[in-house]
């Protein structure tokens, strides 16, 4: 018993140091994830379209609404150079987006209502060609069709990644440059698929803590 007591006394400083070091590492990880997530979120403006249901007809309608909204947004924002500009335009023309979506719905024989808002929304990790955006809370134009109980469709309106050919995994250089201008080198490497084990680990770290945060919020 005396031996065990002496062993505990000897190990106590080591245990205290280990616990303090673990807490320090955890706080550093949280701070890193928070800073990186904030910078990435501040550089993109997303689109979120939710179908009325998962029926074939409602899912097809969702894509038609998406196409018209993207076409309109692209014409509005062709001379924009920042997320803030695009987001401000979306807010100014939010009634136009609602009218366009409503017209598509009616033209296709449905009478669903539509709700269009610009604000913060939670997104899972999404891949757009060779660009990966970790889970997190992002500014987005959110379009809810009817009961909005169907599958979602997500993309990035700025930089324009909505028309990326995912099958080829190629994102236009112009879109990458827009993203790169708003992030530091490490943050850009983090979302631009890399073979680096260090970058992959950091992406997984951000993804883990963001998913944990979103799960706790729910």
End-to-end Cα distance, whole Å, is 49 Å
In DSSP terms (H or I, runs of 4 or more residues), the helix count works out at: 7
What is the β-strand count?
A: 6
The major β-sheet equals:
4 strands, mixed
Q: How many domains, as an integer?
A: 1
Helix content: 55-70%
In round numbers, the mean pLDDT is 82
Q: What spatial form do the alpha-carbon principal axes imply?
A: elongated
Percent strand equals 15-25%
Enumerate the strands of the largest sheet in spatial order, edge to edge or round the barrel: 2-5-1-6
Poorly predicted runs? none
Radius of gyration: 22 Å
How does the SSE layout of this entry go?
Blueprint: H1 2-41, E1 45-50, H2 56-77, H3 83-92, H4 94-107, E2 114-123, E3 126-128, E4 131-133, E5 136-145, E6 152-158, H5 173-181, H6 185-191, H7 197-217
Parallel strand pairs: 1-5
Antiparallel strand pairs: 1-6, 2-5, 3-4
Helix pairs in contact: 1-7, 2-4, 6-7
Please supply descriptive tags for the structure shown above.
218 residues; alpha+beta; four-stranded mixed beta sheet; 56% helix; elongated
Describe the 3D structure:
The protein starts with a helix and ends with a helix. The strands form two sheets. Strands 2-5-1-6 form a four-stranded mixed β-sheet, sandwiched between helices. Strands 3-4 form a two-stranded antiparallel sheet. The mean pLDDT is 82. Helix 2 runs antiparallel to helix 4. The longest helix has 40 residues, at 2-41. A hairpin with a 2-residue loop joins strand 3 (126-128) and strand 4. The protein has 218 residues and is an alpha+beta fold. Helices cover 56% and strands 18% of the residues. The chain contains seven helices and six strands. The radius of gyration is 22 Å and the shape is elongated. The chain has one domain (39-217).
């Amino acid at each position: 018993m005396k031996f065990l007591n002496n062993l505990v006394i000897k190990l106590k400083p080591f245990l205290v140091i280990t616990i303090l070091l673990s807490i320090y590492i955890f706080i550093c990880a949280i701070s890193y994830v928070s800073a990186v997530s904030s910078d990435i979120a501040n550089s993109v403006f997303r689109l979120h379209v939710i179908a009325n249901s998962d029926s074939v007809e409602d899912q097809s309608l969702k894509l038609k609404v998406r196409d018209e909204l993207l076409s309109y947004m692209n014409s509005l924002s062709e001379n924009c150079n920042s997320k803030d500009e695009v987001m401000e335009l979306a807010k100014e023309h939010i009634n136009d987006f609602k009218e366009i979506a409503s017209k598509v719905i009616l033209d296709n024989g449905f009478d669903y209502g539509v709700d269009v808002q610009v604000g913060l929304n939670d997104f899972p990790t999404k891949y757009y060609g060779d660009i990966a955006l970790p889970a997190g809370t992002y500014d987005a134009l959110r379009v809810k069709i009817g009961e909005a109980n169907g599958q979602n469709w997500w993309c990035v309106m700025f930089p324009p990644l909505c028309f990326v050919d995912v099958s080829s995994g190629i994102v236009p250089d112009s879109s990458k440059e827009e993203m790169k201008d708003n992030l530091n080198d490490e943050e850009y490497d983090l979302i631009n698929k890399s073979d680096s084990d260090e970058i992959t680990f950091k992406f997984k770290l951000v993804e883990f803590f963001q998913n944990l945060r979103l799960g706790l919020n729910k």
